[in-house]
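Q&A log
Question type: sequence-to-structure
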Amino acid sequence: MMLTNGDAGVEYSIMHDVSEKWREHPLKRAVSHHITHSTGDATIARTRAAFPQIARDGECFSTPSAGCIRGGVTAECSPHDPGSQRAAHRPQTQAGNRLMPQVQPSPLGYRLKLLASYLCRSPVCPGPPPTAIIATTHRCNMTCRMCLRAVRTFNLPNMEFDLFRRIIDGSSPYLRYLSLDGPGETTMNPEAFRMIRYARSKGIRVMFSTNCTLLDDAMADAIMDSGVDLIIFSVNGATSDVYEAVHGRACYDQVIANIHAFLKQKRRRQARILAVVQMIILDETRSQVSAFYHRWRGTPGVDLVRVKKDVVCNRSMGAADERRARPRKNPCSRLWHGPPFIDTDGSVYASPGVLYKAGPVGNLKEQSLADIWNGEKMQAMRRSHIGGDISGFAECVDCAYLQPRLPLTVAGFLLDPFAAGKLLPLAEKLALWYRLPLFERFGSK
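Response status: OK
Response body:
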């Protein structure tokens, strides 16, 4: 259902306030005019009624899968890819007697366009997502019980640097935050730190998590030299016996020593990298939450201690039936702003929450991320969420990821993805320990 001036409710009030303020920005870029795949006159009329200040005559708005809308009228334009340096189309606006190139939206302006698309319940996005998860390797030296590796075989080769560079080059105008995580240990790809340096050279913030077993002094230097913004130390347990039960290896003392050596080196170098020590709540670790906080809180060099829900849930039985009986109040915002999951071979999955529970929605060796993000499979998933019936997508029914309520969802669009990632643990903590109703469903039981 599209929003109108009469029935938009809270969504329209929020978007109206935001767009009014943004209209006065020096770039004078309001929230983008919203179109559907069909780009019909009725859709244009409804959107212009909801957001009259952003659909002015003479302005041009476009998407990869549809033509341009110039003042509400479809115009013939050359095919283009907003995520590519090869874009053939450059929208222009008239100033006096001169045609002036339209200024590319700032990161905030682009996120506002994504938010408008989400709130207007459009299956089409204005471009690719501003955040993504990329797996650089399937290799790992652990057998963690909560990992997908416990129930599935992963044997693809490492991602090649050339493929990674193509992904970044095709998405860097829009991509702002990148997580190098997946079913493997990131540090086991020899090209991992080169990839981080390349992404950082394009202004993209980068993070990854590690099991810390390979974290010697040389690797600590390589991590800090790469310019990575945030690193997560995965330590599931506050004692050696629980750690071994979860990770499948008796190396707890060595891991703790490696982390402390890294933190010492971080302080010596005055590195700005954010260090997070993280534990997942499992049957084995539930009784050690307090001990985990006590051990790591206040440790010099540790910026955050995080205890989070298990969102993989590879040991859950019957959970899908329980989730099927609890319909969503709002569509999954990850289908609009991401992150998608990109495997080592370039396969793109709609969201990490549906990882390997369904086939990929495309491959970056064959299409751009912008084209995949607005492809038929992605639009079909968005339509199912918009219509409130996701029964046709078992991977969505069985997804154990958090479902934020609308205010938190809107904040997720407005905030820089890196800032949102840093604030998410706080929201989780408030929901987990203080029972604040920030989420429709807070993970799995």
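Response note: The two ends are 32 Å apart (CA to CA).
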